[in-house]
Amino acid sequence: MSTASRVFVARLAGTSVFDPIGDQVGRVRDVVVLVRAKGAPRAVGLVVEVPGRRRVFLPMTRVTSIDAGQVISTGLVNLRRFEQRAMESLVLGELLDRTVTLRDGSGAVVVEDVAIARQRNGDWLVDQLFVRRREPGRSTLGLRRRGATLVVGVDAVSTLAADGSGQGAAALLEAYEDLRPADLADVLHELGGTRRLEVAAALDNERLADVLEELPEDDQVAILSGLETARAADVLEAMEPDDAADLLHELPDAQAARLLELMEPDEAKDVRRLLAYDEDTAGGMMTTEPVVLGPETTIAAALAQIRKQDLPPALASVVFVVRPPLETPTGRFLGVAHFQRLLREPPHAAVGSVVETDTEWLTADAPLGRVTRLLAAYDLLALPVLDDEKRLLGAVSVDDVLDHLLPDDWRESHDEGLAEPERTETVVPRG
């Protein structure tokens, strides 16, 4: 059995986990350790992300090999969702970026990586820390000075078991920089409240907006309420108007009004329009920013619009053709042009020449049931919402409808409806 004697956890993040016959089980997302008052912290298992975006616990007793780029496990993996216990700490989620004090009196350092090493008895212990000295003041260019780095034994610092006050998030975010917003939202949801806010505050506005849209409402409210008011308004501006409106619905009226005042007028205008509708109507679910084009727009230009990376797939499936103005509420609605039809036509042709004028549409007060029936009956991914003058107000997409059909806690129910394989092995306690 080939096993690395020492592994730095930040480099282990994202590593593929394989079973004994070579099938990939998942990827490492964190390491679970028991931080004790006396003695080195002991690694008791890995948090492994398996298909379906579930995070499960893999005991270190079932890890047979940790080599460059892979972890080999033995036996079947218990697919029960990982739940952190009171005495456990997550290395990436809680220990990295923590400020600790060197016992030799030379000052404070920030933990940038943690090394675990296998002992002769098979236990994995935290034995070394990669740390950076904290340097006060700023350089002549106005940037904060970066202190020297060094590797120290875990016994060279004061205990890692602390409340995390003053803890940063740079190393954690670096380890998770490849995650999609929905996956990063899962990570934040599993962190403690204080740590969740620290990590969220370290994200830039666009990234945080994307992640907030994937979090449960309680987490959304807690994070937004924990930010400085001006920063919270900036994040709301970066969110899709319909998601921003849904979040503001959950806030106290005074707080929501204050945030709307601080938002840019153009951004706030769209959100205010959506707040006027009931949440379970087409108006309350729609986005005010679908792809809207004039009939003279070329098909090449239309394809360029729906090719934008930040456009949700459902909204990229169709363009809405209207008379000027092109901002919602638009001029008179003419029809739609579906992505597949655009691909079949010459790039220089006008979108107006392929527009479908008999498409189904919704009024802003259409209930959720009607929206669902029309999407299902005509196999559509998005539907236009029009006012009495046949002006385009926005569009409801299938993902908007799913958010309203699924239970409030659907993001926390990854295991529901998924069968686990039968197991004959003995369950090994974590501790």
Automatic annotation (TrEMBL):
Residues 412-425 have a biased composition (Basic and acidic residues). GO terms for molecular function: magnesium ion transmembrane transporter activity. GO terms for cellular component: membrane. Residues 412-431 are annotated as: Disordered. Gene3D superfamilies: CBS-domain (3.10.580.10), MgtE N-terminal domain-like (1.25.60.10). InterPro entries: CBS_dom, CBS_dom_sf, Mg_transptr_MgtE_intracell_dom, MgtE_N_sf, MgtE_transporter, PRC-brl_dom, PRC_barrel-like_sf, SH3_actinomycetes. It comes from the Bacteria. Pfam families: CBS (PF00571), MgtE_N (PF03448), PRC (PF05239), SH3_actinomycetes (PF26205). Keywords: CBS domain. Residues 355-416 form the CBS domain. The keyword DNA-binding does not apply. This is Magnesium transporter. It comes from Xylanimonas allomyrinae.
